[in-house]
Amino acid sequence: MFLKLVKHELHETYRLLLLLFAGLLVMAGLARGSIWIMDLSNNAALKILGVMLIGIFVLSCVATVILTVVLMMVRFARSVHGDEGYLTHTLPVGTHSILLSRLLVSLLAVLSSYAAVYLGFRICTAGVKSVSEIGTVFRLSMQELDIDPGRGLLKFGVMILVSSLTQILQIFAAISIGHSFNTGKTGKSVLFYFVLSIGSSLVTNLLSLVVMGSQLLSQSQASLSQLTELATYFSLGADLILAGVYYFLTWIMTRKRLNLA
Known about the structure:
The protein has helices spanning 2-40, 44-81, 85-88, 95-124, 129-144, 149-178, 185-218, 224-256. By secondary structure, the chain is mainly α. It has two domains: 1-127; 147-261, no CATH class.
């Protein structure tokens, strides 16, 4: 049944996302064509048009990620706490299966939006010399910091994955708390999102100061790479703890305080 839930969510989510991603890639192709034309022509009108197309592509990248998150929010609110919730909660599955299926599909959707933006960027900048030079500078900077590029990219990927997971669960928790009220559910969901954001930021920043400060005092000769690695592991640990807290809040509000009225 869990796999059926995932399959249904994938269908409902990606039938819209695929159109969104296709539009982004089309804009990437148009932007790349405009760069090619601008390199070959000195016509002012063509250059203005090219700059406009590049600007639209950049806005499309931002819009793709934002709309993916909005769709994720709407799907969760409707299928778990909205009208579809009446059907969802009559299925022969537990609350954990319902939440985990939404979480898995939402995470895939967000990561897919990142991948679509990256692919669009590669299409738009294909053959552009300055972009390859940026990559070279990045690799040299990593070497100067004594960081293996492959290991650094792996850490970056893990951080993106964990951070995305935490943010999705924070949204789920805020929606679940907001929808436990009888009125103003959407407004209260937004309010609790900011409450959770501010609270978690204050706690993590305070703990970060304590951990980094103690590290500096105990190891005055610590290298920049060591401090960077410590900050990375601390960030990952904090995100994982917050993800657990947000999941528990989502589960308890859905299991104990479900309000479909």
